[in-house]
Amino acid sequence: MSTRPFTRLIAGVAAAGLLLGIPVAVTTASAQSSACALGATCEGNLAGTLGTSPYTIKMPATFNGTVLIYSHGYRFATPIPERFAGPLGLLNNPNYDRITLTGTDGATFTAAFGSATAYIGNNRAEIVPAPAATLGLAAAAASAADLEASLLAKGYALAGVGYARQGWATAEGLEANSNLIGLINSGGIAGVKKIAVWGSSLGSTVALATAQANPRTVSGVMPLCGVQAGPIQAFDTAMTVLFTWKALVAPNLRVANYQSYAQALTDLATVLTTLGTSTSATVSQVGYPVFQANFLAGLLGGLPTKSATFDGQTVNPLFLPTLATGNTALALSYSPTSSGSSSLAAMLQNVGAAAALGILGRFELEQRARVAGNLPAGSNLAFNGNLNVDYTKLLSVEQRAQFADALNANTAGQEDLLDRMFAQLALSKGNATFRYQQNPTVVGVVNALPGVTGKNPQPTVAISDLYDAVTPAGNLLAYTQTLAPKKRNSVAYYTVPPTSGYTQFTPAGAISPTTAVYSGVGHCNFADNNGGQLKAVVDVLATYMNSGDVAGAAKANSVRRRTNGIESDRAFQPPALKDTAAASS
Predict the structure, then answer these.
(1) pTM summary value
(2) What's the CA gap between 282 and 284, in Å, rounded?
(3) Which end of the chain, N or C, is more open, meaning fewer C-beta atoms within 10 Å of its C-beta?
(4) Is residue 287 domain-resident?
(5) Which of 71, 86, 81 is nearest to 174 (CA)?
């Protein structure tokens, strides 16, 4: 694809306030002068110093006194080429607008991506979470509608805001939520007894920040599939994955310190195109098998070895080992023929999901930091680094043993493939030209954004998918370990898929596409219309808020035992996040 700078495109986006944080002029509706009526849906706009945010309130027929304020997740703030829209779940997604770029911008997009059509995140308010759109818009909409109807039937008032700006919009989300709380408490909803906040993905950070900023107003908080460990950790994971790609697959990847949107889109195109066109026999331009190099990248970054399609355990029932004698390509055709090859195939999907946020999300956050830090053009924008990371320390002994065959299997005579890949990674250690150093100014700006402190005193009920490639479950583990254990007013749930496996095959032995949405696999995938997981955690939070710690703890344990797809072991812990600081020397 073309790599020429999209100068005019970036100028146009910046001028619209979508990239560089310049508020877009919006006509703001007057504040609601009377309470939202029972059974009604009320909408309006909230003006803030960071811009204007729409809000939605939906009232039940009978109000129980509790308002649930929902914060939505990350939405891409820059135009996404149409060719990427399908894999990223943006087609027909109500949270994204389909736009056509014109003039030089349109011509540039057409030359680079075959179309001037793009998708960009909008500021639509949401009042309940839905599974990630990449799992199917119909399934996501059905789950959200089911959850909404259930909560309204129980008497909850549902509310939510859009953000004045998209991207890593924790500041905008916090301001919008605080303004909505002010509207509610000034008469926007009558008869309010308690306000609880919840959010998905980036929205979980917004919800926690809202609870921290409003300790006397917010009575409870529910972070879902969150990035509680913060942006530095989140993009550290992405840097590990993408830098491993740079060393073993595509040395032209920029990975960080993006000076133009063209560079970020070029990186994304390289990753998605390589993933989409590689086979088990594909060798990278650096000389390493793409499937094995990608698998190592995911393992080092802490990504799961299960995906929505590949469960990492089911093998093709039609595979006959005798057919593979002397034919390694057949043996590793990833149909899958073994549990190891199933995990390798899963990682292809998981790296693709992680790369989108890791690249485009980093670009947006780096640009925020450049403007906030008043950094001149050409400045180092990296807010994390890997200069002295020893990548061998990021692969656990257990992972090395479990996946030794999969990591080393490719062609005869490459039994030492893992060691050779590690040796290639080690060649650049300490090389500031090939690796990355943090800019302290950028680090300071990023760390100053509203985030999670772990000090919120409110009852907290958190839930995470065990196999989430975008926000790994280790985020929730890291968060719960920071909470002071003085009171039993917090609980963490992990959702899990069927233990029997779920990869499906056609009678001919090919992978069978499925529309099923499996609990615990994917990003923010809580199967409400197949087990009531979010309904259950709302009930737990309500018990904590209304009846105290002991009753809440008892309710939490009951839900853990009886809710389909929730890990029942109270002592269960997911894999911890990978720690590159500890791996540096």
Answers:
(1) 0.90
(2) 7
(3) C
(4) yes
(5) 71
**Torsion angles phi and psi, residue 262, rounded to 5:** -60, -40
How far apart are the C-alpha atoms of 462 and 224, rounded to whole Å?
6
Instruction: Say how far apart CA 52 and CA 162 lie, in whole Å.
Output: 9
In whole angstroms, give the CA distance from residue 323 to residue 208: 55
Cβ pair 322, 349 in contact under 8 A: no
Confirm whether 417 is domain-assigned: yes
Instruction: Evaluate whether residue 557 is within a structural domain.
Output: yes
The domain in which residue 64 lies consists of 7-75+102-230+463-562
What are the residues facing 159 on neighbouring strands?
Answer: 57, 69
24 lies in the same domain as 107? yes
Domain annotation covers residue 170: yes
Looking at the fold, whether 330 and 363 belong to one and the same domain comes out as yes
- CA dist., res. 354 & res. 469, Å (int): 6
Give how many domains the chain has, as a whole number.
Answer: 2
Specify whether 158 is located in the same domain as 216: yes
Q: pLDDT, tens digit, for every residue of 489-520?
A: 889 999 999 888 888 887 777 777 666 667 89
- Is residue 74 within 8 A of residue 167, CB to CB? The reply is yes
Torsion of CA 403, 495, 569, 223, to 10 degrees: 120
Helix (H, G, I), strand (E, B) or coil at 509: coil
User: In terms of domains, do 393 and 541 share one?
Assistant: no
Type of residue at 18: L
The enclosing H or E element of 546 equals helix 533-547
Q: What is the pLDDT of residues 217-262, one digit of tens each?
A: 999 999 999 999 999 999 999 999 999 999 999 999 999 999 999 8
